[in-house]
Write a structure and sequence with these properties.
Structural class: mainly alpha
Number of strands: 0
Radius of gyration: 24 Å
CATH topology of one domain: MetI-like fold
Distance between the termini: 43 Å
Length: about 280
């Protein structure tokens, strides 16, 4: 009886996993298949045979100069923001974890309190600041917004906190300067959590819609999510073109995640274990 109950429990568990996988993967599969079909075959159920697939939707999109410009904007902004964010947040985390200065703990606690403030509350002040600095409709303005993250500082600080002080003191005694100590000893030890934050920052910057829509006035400065929204207005009735645009937006994120997933898992695990 116990064996039968255990068998049924396993079957139920695996059935739930299969249902979860199907419901998760199905929208992506449908998006990809639809992107390879043209009207009136885009909404056929079941899908037509593979012989009817075509790259015409992708050709139509890439013939659109504005979309290519948006792709370029997204690449520049996303990679610049990710790199700058990791650098700034790591420096701040190192200061809070390993440098002694008056009011360090109080300042860090105050920094954590800002995580409780919704982003929408600071939207208008941030917009006014960017306008006063003449940073609207520019790469710098958008990169500036995401260059610092309290969550990233917290994660990196917790990770760096467990790096032995003896290791750093030995390096200082051997004549290692503070910048060299940071770049050649601390950062390499933080690879897992840096990879995790890099993926989070990359996905967030790549998919950001609201701020580019607010800051970027000129259409030539739009990013991919904004360009995809414009495609909805221009080709809203053509599901094939819409899905092709969605594939172009989604594929880079999937490739980046597959490339660094082992570091991502290590970073998440380390973050869970460190106290």
């Amino acid at each position: 009886m116990n064996k039968k109950a255990g068998f049924l429990k396993k079957i139920s568990f695996y059935a739930l996993i299969v249902i979860f996988l199907v419901t998760t993967i199905m929208p992506f599969a449908w998006m990809f298949v639809t992107s390879l079909r043209v009207a009136p075959n885009t909404m056929l159920v079941p899908p037509p045979p593979p012989g009817t697939f075509t790259l015409l939707n992708f050709i139509t999109i890439f013939e659109n100069a504005d979309f290519l410009r948006s792709l370029f904007n997204s690449i520049v902004i996303t990679f610049s923001l990710t790199f700058l964010s990791i650098l700034i947040n790591a420096m701040a985390a190192y200061s809070f974890a390993k440098l002694n200065f008056p009011g360090r703990e109080k300042l860090f606690a105050l920094l954590l309190l800002t995580m409780m403030v919704p982003g929408k509350v600071t939207m208008m002040p941030v917009f006014i600041i960017l306008k006063s600095l003449d940073l609207l409709n520019s790469y710098i303005g958008l990169i500036f917004l995401g260059s610092a993250s309290v969550y990233a500082i917290f994660m990196l600080r917790q990770f760096m906190y467990d790096i032995p002080d003896e290791l750093l003191e030995s390096a200082r005694i051997d004549g290692c300067s503070e910048p060299r100590l940071f770049f050649y000893i601390v950062l390499p030890l933080c690879k897992p959590v840096i990879a995790t934050l890099a993926i989070i920052n990359f996905i967030g910057a790549w998919n950001e819609l609201l701020w580019p829509l607010i800051i970027m006035i000129d259409e030539k400065m739009y990013t991919l999510p904004v360009a995809l929204a414009n495609l909805n207005g221009r080709y809203g009735s053509d599901q094939g073109i819409m899905m092709a645009g969605a594939v172009i937006v989604v594929v880079p994120i999937i490739l980046i995640f597959l490339f660094v997933q082992k570091y991502y898992i290590r970073g998440i695990t380390a973050g869970a274990l460190k106290g």
